[in-house]
Amino acid sequence: MVDRSVFSKLSMPCAFLDWDAFVQNVDHIAKHANGKKIRIATKSIRCVQVLKFILERNKCFEGLMCYNPHEADFLAEVGFDNLLLGYPTVDLEGLTKIASQIKKGKKIICMVDEKEQINLIEKIAAKNDVVFPLCIDIDMSTSFYGFHFGVRRSPIKETKDLVPLLTQILQSLNVRLEGIMGYEAQIAGVGDDAKNRFLKNKVIQYLKKKSLNEIANKRKEIVKYIEKDGYHLEFVNGGGTGSLESTSKEKVVTEVTVGSGFYAPTLFDEYRNFQYKPAIGFALPIIRKPADKLFTCTSGGFIASGAVGKEKLPTPYSPKNCKLLPLEGAGEVQTPVFYSGNEKLEIGDAILFRPSKAGEIAERFSHLFVVSQNKIIDQFSTYRGDRGCFL
Ligand SMILES: Cc1ncc(COP(=O)(O)O)c(C=O)c1O
Question: According to CATH, what is the number of the domain 33-264?
Answer without folding.
Answer: 3.20.20.10
